[in-house]
C-alpha cells in the first residue's frame, strides 16, 4: 500500500528505526528494492530525482510505482521526489502521483548557487503550504552538501554547489534548524554534516573531523520530534569498488559513510537515509563481470538479472542494518 513520508517516519520514530530511501530510474531498480523489502518485511521509500523523471518519463514512473504496490500490496511504499529544485517541480511531481516531495532550497533553482535564508524558507514554505493541503509530505534541506576535506560541493554528476564552501555552509547550524522547521513546517529535515553525493565522499576512512555526526546529535537535542534526513549516505563498499575495478572499471580508491555511523544517526533522530551510489555500483559491478566473462552474451536479461540481484542484496543489508526489517507488518 502507499504511505506518506510523514506517516512512515512517525512510525520509524516510534519504533526507533531508519528507512533507507533508494533511488530508481528503471524497472530493474524498482523490482530490486521491492524484492528486498518483501524478503525482510520492510516498508520502503522509493525516490526519483529530476534526472530520473527526465530519463524514464513521469508516466512510466507513475505506473511503475502503481505496479510495485499492486505486486507487493503488503509492503508500505512511499513515493518521493528527490531534490526538487523549485516549487513548480514539486507540483508537477504531485500531479504525477508522488505522495512526498523534497523541496531542496539549500541551492537556488540552478542547483549550483548556495541559497540564502530568505530564499530557502520562502520556496520551502510555498511548497509545504500547498502540499499539506493535499496530505502530501515535504522534506526540506538546510545546509549545503559537500566535503569538509576540500570545501567542494558535489561535482561528478553535474549538480551540486559550485565554488569553495565554508564550514558554516557545509554544517547545518542547530539554532537555524529550529527556526527553519518552525517557519516552514517541513515533515522531514535534510541536514549537512560533511557528506556529498556520489562515490567520492572522503579520501580516507572518515572520522569526526570530516563526517560531523555530532551536528546531528545537537540538532536532535533541540528538535527531538523532527525527522532528520541524511543525504549522500552510500557506504561505497570496498568489495563493490574491487569488483568494478577487477572487470575493467577505473574507480580511484574512495570512502563513503560507514553503516555504523548511520546507525549512530538513527539513534539521534535520523529517519530517512538516502542511498543511490551503492546501488549503482552493485549493478555495474555485476554487469561488468557478466559481460567480461561472457563476451558473446547480448541478451540484456543475462546481465540485468544478476545486477538486480546484487542491488536486492545491498538493499536487504541496509534494511537489516537500519532495523527497517520486520516493520512492514507492524504498520
Ligand atoms: O541527488 C542524487 C541522487 O543520487 C540522484 O542522482 O540526479 O543523477 O538522478 P541523479
Ligand atoms: P549517495 O550518492 O551517497 O548514494 O546519495 C544519494 C542521495 O543523497 C540522493 O538524494
Ligand atoms: Na530526498
Ligand atoms: Zn541527496
TrEMBL record:
Active site positions, chain numbering: 82
Sequence positions that bind Zn(2+) 2: 104, 141
A GO molecular-function descriptor: zinc ion binding
Annotated catalysed reactions: beta-D-fructose 1,6-bisphosphate = D-glyceraldehyde 3-phosphate + dihydroxyacetone phosphate
Entries under PROSITE patterns matching the protein: ALDOLASE_CLASS_II_1, ALDOLASE_CLASS_II_2
Binding site for dihydroxyacetone phosphate: 198, 232-234, 274-277
Keyword Zinc tagged: yes
The enzyme's E.C. designation: 4.1.2.13
Cofactor binding annotation: Binds 2 Zn(2+) ions per subunit. One is catalytic and the other provides a structural contribution. One is catalytic and the other provides a structural contribution.
Keyword Lyase: yes
Requisite cofactors: Zn(2+)
Pathway as given in its UniProt record: Carbohydrate degradation; glycolysis; D-glyceraldehyde 3-phosphate and glycerone phosphate from D-glucose: step 4/4; Carbohydrate biosynthesis; Calvin cycle
The entry's keywords: Calvin cycle, Glycolysis, Lyase, Metal-binding, Zinc
Residues annotated to bind Zn(2+) 1: 83, 197, 231
EC class of the enzyme, as a word: lyase
Segments forming a coiled coil: none
Entries under SUPFAM superfamilies matching the protein: Aldolase
GO biological process: glycolytic process; reductive pentose-phosphate cycle
Family that this chain belongs to: Belongs to the class II fructose-bisphosphate aldolase family.
Function: Catalyzes the aldol condensation of dihydroxyacetone phosphate (DHAP or glycerone-phosphate) with glyceraldehyde 3-phosphate (G3P) to form fructose 1,6-bisphosphate (FBP) in gluconeogenesis and the reverse reaction in glycolysis.
PANTHER family associated with the record: D-TAGATOSE-1,6-BISPHOSPHATE ALDOLASE, D-TAGATOSE-1,6-BISPHOSPHATE ALDOLASE SUBUNIT GATY-RELATED
Protein name per the record: Fructose-1,6-bisphosphate aldolase
Organism field: Roseibium hamelinense
Amino acid at each position: 500500500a502507499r504511505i506518506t513520508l510523514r506517516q512512515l517516519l512517525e512510525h520509524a520514530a516510534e519504533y526507533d528505526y531508519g528507512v533507507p530511501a533508494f533511488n530508481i530510474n528503471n524497472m530493474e531498480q524498482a523490482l530490486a528494492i521491492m524484492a528486498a523489502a518483501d524478503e525482510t518485511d520492510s516498508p520502503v521509500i522509493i525516490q526519483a530525482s529530476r534526472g530520473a523523471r527526465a530519463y524514464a518519463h513521469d508516466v512510466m514512473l507513475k505506473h511503475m510505482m502503481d505496479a510495485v504496490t499492486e505486486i507487493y500490496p503488503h509492503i508500505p511504499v512511499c513515493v518521493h521526489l528527490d531534490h526538487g529544485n523549485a516549487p513548480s517541480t514539486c507540483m508537477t511531481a504531485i500531479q504525477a502521483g508522488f505522495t512526498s516531495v523534497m523541496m531542496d532550497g539549500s541551492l537556488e533553482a540552478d542547483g549550483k548557487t548556495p541559497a540564502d535564508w530568505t530564499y530557502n524558507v520562502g520556496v520551502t514554505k510555498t511548497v509545504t503550504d500547498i502540499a499539506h493541503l493535499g496530505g502530501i509530505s515535504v522534506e526540506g534541506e538546510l545546509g549545503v552538501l559537500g566535503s569538509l576535506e576540500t570545501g567542494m560541493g558535489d561535482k561528478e554528476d553535474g549538480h551540486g554547489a559550485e565554488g569553495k564552501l565554508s564550514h558554516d555552509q557545509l554544517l547545518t547550524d542547530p539554532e537555524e534548524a529550529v527556526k527553519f522547521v518552525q517557519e516552514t513546517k517541513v515533515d522531514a529535515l535534510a541536514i549537512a554534516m560533511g557528506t556529498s553525493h556520489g562515490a567520492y565522499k572522503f579520501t580516507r576512512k572518515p572520522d569526526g573531523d570530516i563526517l560531523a555526526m555530532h551536528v546531528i546529535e545537537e540538532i536532535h537535542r533541540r528538535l527531538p520530534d523532527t525527522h532528520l534526513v541524511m543525504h549522500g549516505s552510500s557506504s561505497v563498499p570496498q568489495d563493490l569498488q574491487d569488483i568494478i575495478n577487477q572487470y575493467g572499471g577505473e574507480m580511484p580508491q574512495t570512502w563513503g559513510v560507514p553503516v555504523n555511523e548511520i546507525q549512530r544517526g538513527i539513534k539521534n533522530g535520523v529517519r530517512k537515509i538516502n542511498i543511490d551510489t551503492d546501488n549503482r555500483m552493485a549493478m555495474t559491478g555485476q554487469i561488468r563481470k557478466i559481460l567480461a566473462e561472457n563476451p558473446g552474451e547480448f541478451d540484456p536479461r543475462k546481465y540485468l538479472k544478476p545486477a538486480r540481484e546484487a542491488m536486492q542484496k545491498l538493499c536487504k543489508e541496509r534494511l537489516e542494518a537500519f532495523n527497517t526489517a520486520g516493520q512492514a507488518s507492524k504498520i
